[in-house]
Amino acid sequence: MNIQQILDNRQCFKLVCGAGNEDAEQVRRLVFVYALAGASIFDLSANEDVIMAAQDSLKRAKSEAALCVSVGIAGDPHVSKAVIDADKCISCGACHSVCPQNAIADKTVNHQKCIGCHKCEKVCHNCAISFVSQTKPVSDILTPLCKYPISVYELHAIGENEAAVDNDWAAVCEMPSLMKSLCIDRSKVGNERLIARIRRCLDGRQPQTTIIQTDGTPMSGGKDDFRTTLQAIATAELVTKYNIPAYILLSGGTNSNSSYLAHILGVPIHGVAIGSFARQIVADFIADPHFWESPDIIGKAIERAKMLVKNITG
What we know:
40% of the residues lie in helices and 18% in strands. The chain is α/β, with parallel strands linked by helices. The strands form three sheets. The chain has an eight-stranded parallel β-barrel with strand order 1-2-3-8-9-10-11-12, surrounded by six helices. It has a two-stranded antiparallel sheet with strand order 4-7.
């Protein structure tokens, strides 16, 4: 099935490797595990090494899953990287202990691993951590990727800068794929402004050629409960009220309960994008240095991933 068929069947499982995750080997392992578990789409950083790693794993897994490349406007947490002020840092270790990517060591941050989740900043009592965003134009980032079989290009349109959203969305729409994805949330803008943004971005596009990814609370899906996924469903409900001619995927705080909660609340969705929670449940297996040499480790990771995919797709 192609992407539109999967979305029409409302059974889409999208594994979010992380828009800021440039750790190619980690992505290679994640894609291999979740491809064999039945994932439909893989969301990747706009990084050639990462894309090639994902392609390699899809080939190994004999999977026809689609690849999605994500970019974000300046200031978007998904494309931000942590920076530690060594003069302010007291080496307490708090940031290292909460980093889901193990990206922090010796007062430095490995930017290939950092996904911009801001967890380190929240636990730093000495204000030693700040974040920087990419400044390269989206068109310059995406144009070199045309040679790869990318099925979906996604813009994280999170923030208040409408001009930046419009400019970057125009660049995304120029890329050679039918399907485009717009990731939105309500952290900075109200409901009316959000709907106006969506309508403006969809103006001129053919119906059902756009995915609206309703990001509840970005990168908050560490817990497997209803509370973390509730905001994503609330945002999805808002979009459905306005009969937007697009597919809707839940994201941001999503977990194994997301599809079920959307169903019992009567919110029609076409699938779920899961990042933090999906990566967390297989993290120990993925990080094992003997991953590729151990069928047992790989098998256990796949079984755990399969349970999550089954909960989402039914």
